[in-house]
Amino acid sequence: MFEQFSEFIQQFLPEFKIELMRIEPLLKTVKVQKGEFLFREGDVCEFLGLTLKGCLRTFFLKDGKELTLFFHLENQPLGDYESFRKQQPACFSCQAIEDSEVLIVSNELFQVFELAPEGQKFLRLHAESLAFMLRDKLLSLFKDTPEQRYLKLLQTEAELLQRIPQYYIASYLGVEPESLSRLKRRIQKKAIS
Description:
50% of the residues lie in helices and 21% in strands. The protein is of the alpha+beta class.
């Protein structure tokens, strides 16, 4: 568990070191069965997380329809950062698509990082990474066609297509499941020609 967490930290700030003895008692994991929620829209998100095993999705409801923002495979962060920091209701829900295990980053552990040398730099870099990820998603929804978004998904996250039901992929791309089927057929025809 600590190894995966340490590797995650090193992605952002290789020189950042934190004493295992200091944080190990604060590291906890939670198992989330397929279909279960880690947290729901409207609840206060009391933690941030790192997917150790499985896959979860972040989504919100609009007019009774689920819109998927992100998928969280192994070694990817999750949580409603603003809800966690400001202790206000979450803007979205997080649900397991597969049986999953998540490392929980509690407020207490977060404070240890804030006080550690280089800790605030690591937290800033991580927050920036989340902001850039959200910016890229938003720009893609406005600038790219559904076909371009699907092709980008094929190039950058093809593993998702093997692990995630098509109706979640459609929601992630901002299209109806029927449109995704037509889009896939159209792309296959182009590949054959």
